[in-house]
């Protein structure tokens, strides 16, 4: 049993990037699917596919690399809120990552979104991770 599935998700993606893998396969859950959708819409991953053939299902993520320099689109994934220490922020205290160059993924009452989307919706929530 995994006590922190989001940290496991981020670690699998981080390890796949360090090993220069093109595709990473991760056990699925609803929160992981929403994080994957945010990463895709913000351009950090190339594509994704949800396979629900098994009981739990899997997420297959095609990682994005620069074609000339072979540098990954994701340079750092950092878990913020953990099961032992949840990090909640109000709508007026949303974090900025690298002065707006990165994103913070927030779990709000209106769904999983970036800090910029949460600011426009005027909602706060739990800060899941930073991506840049």
Automatic annotation (TrEMBL):
Which Pfam families does the record cross-reference, listed alphabetically? Answer: Ribosomal_S8 (PF00410)
* PROSITE patterns, alphabetized: RIBOSOMAL_S8
- Supply the InterPro entries for this chain: Ribosomal_uS8, Ribosomal_uS8_CS, Ribosomal_uS8_sf
Family, similarity comment: Belongs to the universal ribosomal protein uS8 family.
Q: What does this protein do?
A: One of the primary rRNA binding proteins, it binds directly to 16S rRNA central domain where it helps coordinate assembly of the platform of the 30S subunit.
HAMAP family membership: Ribosomal_uS8_B (MF_01302_B)
Its quaternary structure? Part of the 30S ribosomal subunit. Contacts proteins S5 and S12.
Query: In its UniProt entry, what is this protein called?
Result: Small ribosomal subunit protein uS8
User: Which species expresses this protein natively?
Assistant: Hymenobacter coccineus
């Amino acid at each position: 049993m995994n006590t922190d599935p989001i940290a496991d998700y981020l670690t699998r993606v981080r390890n796949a990037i360090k090993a220069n893998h093109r595709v990473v396969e991760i056990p699925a859950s609803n929160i992981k699917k929403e994080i994957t959708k945010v990463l895709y819409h913000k351009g950090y991953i190339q594509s994704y596919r949800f396979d629900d053939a098994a009981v739990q299902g899997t997420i297959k993520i095609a990682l994005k690399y620069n074609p000339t320099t072979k540098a990954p689109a994701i340079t750092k994934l950092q878990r913020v809120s953990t099961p032992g220490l949840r990090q909640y922020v109000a709508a007026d205290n949303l974090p900025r990552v690298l002065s707006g160059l990165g994103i913070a993924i927030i779990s709000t009452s209106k769904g999983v979104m970036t800090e910029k989307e949460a600011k426009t919706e005027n909602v706060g929530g739990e800060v899941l991770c930073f991506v840049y």
